[in-house]
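Reading a protein record of the kind used here takes little practice once its layout is understood. The fold follows as a row of integers, each naming the local backbone shape at the matching residue. With these conventions in mind, the following record can be read line by line:

_____
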Amino acid sequence: MNMVWAIGGKRDRVSMEVTYNTPGTTDVFKTLSEAMRQPSTIMVNIEGERIINEEIMENTTFTGNAISQQTGMRAFTIIGSDGIDYMRKHGLDYITYHHAIKDLDKWDSEKQAYFAGEAGNLESSVFGAGNGVSYREEGEDQQQNFYECGSIEEIARVTGINYENLKKTIERYNSFAGGYDADFVKAPRYLRPITGEKFYVARHFPSGYGSLGGIKVNYRMEVLDTENRPIPGLYGCGTDTAGVFAGEYCFYNPGSTMSYALNSGRIAATEARDYIDGDGFVE
């Protein structure tokens, strides 16, 4: 992009395809991660307020965008040990394309490994870093993003979530159990109370599938100058030219940016061939 801009190519808006991530857990402790992304969890912000209908967590774009609007660009999912026991018996409500985790057979072993700091010994994923590296803020040596707590008070203490609001939010949510979600209209089958001897919490942050845009092109994939005129013999393709996207990954049409990359490359190559074979090309 810098090379194109340096010779007069027009700058296009650069954006990011948004998703969300639980650093040090997603793609490393896959069972923990998937369990904490289920529609039967509750998702709250640092103020202790619920922020979404948790059914949409299967759509990582929707969820990532929701999290990015919160204080500190972070959110937390919470489930009680009763909810974990339910999933042990019945399996997970939602199975992702990437990880295909269907049950909690590895919940205990992964939990033990997580708290023992054994991420490096676990199987990595081609979809992300498998080395257990966590998101870190300035001054932090290490950040924990998965917790096991004995009470709501402990959740608030270890995460910084507003205790009074969190307590009210969970009480209100539990009052909906098996009935009607008056706040977000989540399907009753997912309205299981957040109860049990233990509570599990995961902290999530927005992350990206990839960047979009930067180089302005026309439909022939010719790079345009600042006056929207084609620069002779210069073509662009791939996500660096994908200003047609608005920073949203079309979750229900997977492969959309891949198909754009393939087809823009095909068009650019065809146009470049025609340019070379035409009168405008000088060796």
Strands lie at 15-21, 42-44, 75-80, 146-149, 199-212, 222-224, 230-235.
